[in-house]
Amino acid sequence: MEHRRLGRSGLNVSEISYGNWLTHGSQVEEDAAQSCVRAALDAGITTFDTADVYANTKAESVLGRALKGQRREGLEIFTKVFWPTGPGGPNDKGLGRKHIMESAHASLQRLGTDYLDLYQAHRFDRSTPLEETMLAFADLVRQGKVLYIGVSEWTADQITRGAALARELNVPLISNQPQYSMLWRVIEKQVVPTSEREGLGQIVWSPIAQGVLTGKYAPGAEPPAGSRATDESGGKNMISRWLRDDVLTAVQQLKPLAEQAGLSMAQLAVAWVLQNPNVASAIIGASRPEQVVDNAAAAGRKLDADLLKAIDDVLADVVVTDPSLTVSP
Description:
alpha/beta; eight-stranded parallel β-barrel; 12 helices; 10 strands
C-alpha cells in the first residue's frame, strides 16, 4: 500500500481508504463488516472514513468495534458532521457550535478513540455563520480532540472562505471530500485548482461510481440480483443516474482497456482517480472482503498517457464536468 501526504499537511494517508457509508450498520451484517475491515487492514489500508449520519450513527459504532485492539497510532480515523442525527431535535443538524461539539463527543465515544485524525464538515451550512463553524472546529483542535479539519462537497468559493478563516484561527484545514470518478469530474475545473492553492488535498468518494464502473451493469439488461441498483437501502436512487444505456455502453468499452493494463475494471477506476496529483486517497466501500482486496490492488498503479486518452475518448459523451453541480444544501 502506498501512502500520500494529505494536502500541504504532515499527515500521511493510505492511497486507498476504507469507508462504510452504505454498508456498516445497514446493508451488511456486522460479521461481514468486521471481515471487510480485517481485509482492509491486511491490505495495508490505514485510513478509515465514516460519518455520524451513516446508518444514523450505527456505522461509527461498527467501525469502532472493528478497529478495537488495533494500534491507534497506526490508523487515521476520519468522521464527519452536518446531517441530522438523533431524534430530529432543532439542534440535531447543521454546523452550529452546539451540534458540532455534541456530535464530536458522541463520535469519539462510538469510535472508541480519544481523538479524530480528521473531522470534516459534511456539507456547507448556509444557515450558520461560517465564523461560528470554524471557531468550533478550532476549539476542538485546541482541546486535542481533533488533529486536522476538512470539508466535504464544498464549492471552490466556500473552500476559499473556509481556508481564510482557518489561517486566521491557526488551524489546519487540509482536505475536501468530493465525489470523483471517470464519469463524475465536476471538481476538476474549480475545486481542484482552488484546493491546490489553499493547501487542501482530495479524499474522493465513489471512485467506481457506485459500482457502475465495474462493468457489471449491462445496457438493456436488468440489474444483477443483489446488486446496489436493486437495494432500496443501499443507494439505489443514487446509482440510477448512471443506469442509462449510453453510459453503460461506454463503460463496457473500458473492458479491453482494463485487460490490456492488467487491471480489473474496479482497479482501473480507482487507479484513474489516483492519477490526479491533488487526490490523496480514494475511498472504497465493500460488502465482501474480496472486493476490498481487489480494490486495494489499485494502489501504486500508474496509468500511461495513451491509456488515459483512450479512457477519455471512450467516455467523452457521458462524462459530467459542470462545476455548478458541486452545491451544498
